[in-house]
Structure formats: C-alpha cells, structure tokens
Amino acid sequence: AAFWKQGRWNEGEELEVQVMDTRKRVLGAGHPDTLTSMNNLAFTLKDKGECEKAITLME
C-alpha cells in the first residue's frame, strides 16, 4: 500500500507478485488471502495502465 500511495507502481508490483506467488504455493489458489493478493496486483496493473493484464488476472 505504501508504494501504491507514492505512485511507485513497479516496486509495488514486484512485491505484490512475490506475495501472490507465496500465498498460492502455501495457501492455494482459491484461498481468500491469495485472492486478495490477486486483487491488489490487478489494481496496481490497472493504475500502471496495463488494463488487459489486470482483467486477465481477475478472470
């Protein structure tokens, strides 16, 4: 959230991908915490102007 508030999208994206991947591995793809991570990453991608990637992630 700190990177997002500062507009540091690339750094935020890197951390969000790491968190999402870890949660998928540890908790599973359908776990609510994993889904939250996916949602956070999708919003970062949207804010970076990568809307197609964001949509794909949310589908």
Automatic annotation (TrEMBL):
Coiled-coil ranges from the UniProt annotation: none
One family name in Pfam for this protein: TPR_12
InterPro entries for this protein: TPR-like_helical_dom_sf (IPR011990)
SUPFAM superfamilies: TPR-like (SSF48452)
The name this protein goes by in its record: Kinesin light chain
Organism from which the protein derives: Rhizodiscina lignyota
